Each structure stands twice: as C-alpha cells, then as structure tokens.
Amino acid sequence: MAKLLETVDLVTNFYTYEGVVKALNKVSLVVDHGSTFGLVGESGCGKSVTVRSIMRIVQEPGRIEGGKVIVYLDERDKQAGIDLLQQSETYMESLRGDRISMIFQEPNAALNPTLSIGDQVSESFLFHQKKEMCTKIYEDLCAPECQLFYPIKKIQQAVYGMASNNPYAVSLKIMNKVPILKRWQKRLKKEAKKRAIDIIDKLGIPNPAQVVEQYPHNLSGGMKQRIVIAIALACNPVLLIADEATSNLDVTIQAQILELLRRLKEEVISSILLITHDLGVVAETCDRVGVMYAGNLCEVADVKELFGNPLHPYTRALLDAVPKFSVEKELKSIEGNVPNLVTPPPGCRFHPRCPRVMGVCPQTFPEMKEVKKDHMVACYLY
User: Nearest 10 degrees: CA dihedral of 128, 132, 133, 135?
Assistant: First the structure.
C-alpha cells in the first residue's frame, strides 16, 4: 500500500518560563493511502502536538525544531513527496481544509459563536473552491434555460467568465471595493450555501436548510460535532485528521460519529489519522495503531497484532488497565506518574514506571526495531 503521510524524526519543543518542554522526541510514523491509523496514549503524551506539528499549527510558545513531514498526495507517484516543513505559509493555507483537513477536539472552541452555521461551512468552499464555483455559475448563465434579463445576463457572464479563469484577478478586487459592483459575489455565496446544505444533509443532520440559518448555541453537542466534520469534509480531503473527535460525546452519539467516519472513508476520504485515548475505539475503527508515551512513539503494529501480541511494557500496561469481565475485582493500573517533560527521564522515558526495567534502559533511548513484519517496537527487551 502506498504512503500518504510520513513523519521522520519530528521534534517539537515548547519554550516556557519553567524551561523547555520536550513535547516530541523524534516521532516517526507512516499513514498509508486507504487506511485508518490510530494514535493512542495517556493525556499529555504528545498525540495532539504530533498532528498540530503535521499541520504546522503549533501554538506559541511551541516550535517545530527538526524532522520532516512528507505527504504523497499523488498515489501513483511514490517519489513526489512534499516536505510540509519546507513549504511557505501560503502553500499550507491552500493545503489545510482542502487536501488535508482536521476535526478539532472541542467543537465549541472550533465553531465561531457569532457566525451562522451556513457561513462557517460555506467559508471552506469560498476559500478553496471559488474557481470551481465560478465556473459552475458561468455554465448556468450560458445555459439556454437561464431567464435573466439579457443585459444583466451578459454582464454576469463576463464577470463570472473572468472569475472562472482567475478568481483573484486585480479587476475583480477593484470591483469588490465598489458597493454596487461587488454584488456579483452574492450569487457566489448562494452557490457556497447550497453546497453547505448538501454536505450537511449527507452527514445525516435533519432539516439542513434550517440548520444553516442557526448558530452553534442552537445545536446539541452531537450536531455541533457533525458540523465540524462537515467543515473538514467540505472539499473532499485526501487525509482527515480526527483529534479526539468523540471524546466529549455520550456513547450513542459516539457510535454514530464513528460509523459516519467509517462510511465517509469508504466513499470520500482516502485515509484517517485518528487521535484517541480509547482503546475500544481503536479496536473498532483502525487498521494500524501507534502507541505514544511522553513524546515518544514506543510501538507500531496492525491493530489485530497489537491487541493480540503487545510487546512494549507500556502497551501491555495500557491493555491490562482496560476493565474486563472477570472474577478479579481490582482494576489494574500503571504505577507512578507521567514524567515532567521539562526534565524527562534519561534513556527510555517509561523506565521509572516499567516493571521490566534493565540497567541499559536509563542510559540511552532504544531505537525503533521491526521485530515482526510491520510490527515495530522501541524497547531493549527485543
């Protein structure tokens, strides 16, 4: 299976008053075309920082210090990889929300309370698909069934014909500064709103034409999460990054969202990078899974292999901590606490909590090794 996304030795630090928080320590992972990759671990292990580094939206005082983030948007050309860390911010703005989209963890924070749902979903179309929409409107105006008054029709044909070639032409920018002339955008916004209604309808939200006129506070938590997904899916991305997309929802709505993502991957999206701390979600939805601890990737394997044969002591501890139906009354837990990443433990960062720690563990960090086919682990036990 061809690669879609690859990170190589990704390093991200946060410069705080307490010191340098070493959030990511040479994280390397691969997401293939057509697969769902799950990234799991405790809170604070670096899952969200990893995807924010991929999208280059790390918040201050964070800084990406090294590594590569390579995307292979053309599945047929395996050599046409693009290192996102070397691209301009203009290029990244054209990529975000178009070829690569992200569902953020908290829908209340992702949605603007002062804008209608229709305006927020339409924004993706207006930013990334303005040329396509102008072409569609121009073709509609040229159709024989168009009944507009002839002079107005010819003027609009000229304007939208120009916009279909270059929606950012200087002449259009001048027109936008004149109140009576910038009315040409009215039809463009109407087309964007129509597309917003279509995408909301496809996500199973009832009465989409009514929903686009409402505001975030009018919607339930599950509906707001679907709207965030609608914004992310507006331009049919190749890769969808879902950062804890179901963490704040009840189990019924969570199941609906997961089923929705599964169906969309089959019909629209090529691949999904799923960030979660719920191993049940991983087992149900993912093809491959990576386990993170304290800014390091410690194990990567196919989901069935990882659940059936966990190798890293931290992975085993995570699986043992999942409640099971058994005669045992006490739940197992992981001894100790997550380390402070300002002064992380030397060597393997899990060694202070590891039941199988050896003398070499505190000295140097273990390299990731392929122990079995497609099963990699960073541990001195192997």
Answer: 150
Residues whose CB is less than 8 angstroms from the CB of residue 300 and which lie 6 or more positions away in sequence, other chains included? 29, 288, 289, 290, 291, 368, 375, 376, 377
> Residue 102 burial (CB < 10 Å; 0-12/13-18/19+)?
buried
| Cβ 282 vs Cβ 289: under 8 Å | yes
Residue of 40, 53, 52 lying closest to 9 (CA atoms): 53
**Is pLDDT at 78 greater than 60 in this prediction?**
no
Give the residue among 84, 105, 32, 55 at the shortest CA–CA distance from 286.
Answer: 32
Domain boundary among 196, 212, 247: 196
Domain containing residue 178: 119-196
C-alpha separations of 275 from 168, 370, 379 in Å: 37, 23, 23
Residue that finishes a domain, picked among 139, 169, 196: 196
Measured CA to CA, the distance from residue 294 to residue 3 in angstroms comes to 26
Task: Measure the CA dihedral 72/238/49/249, to 10°.
Answer: -160
Q: Are residues 107 and 125 in the same domain?
A: no
Residues 6+ apart with CB under 8 A from 94: 128
**135-181 confidence digits (pLDDT tens):** 887 777 787 777 766 677 677 777 777 777 777 777 777 766 766 66
User: Would you give the end-to-end CA distance of the chain in angstroms?
Assistant: 27
Query: Same domain, yes or no, for 146 and 295?
Result: no
Q: Domain check: are 307 and 246 in the same one?
A: yes
Structural domains counted in the chain: 2
Do both 1 and 106 map to the same domain? Answer: yes
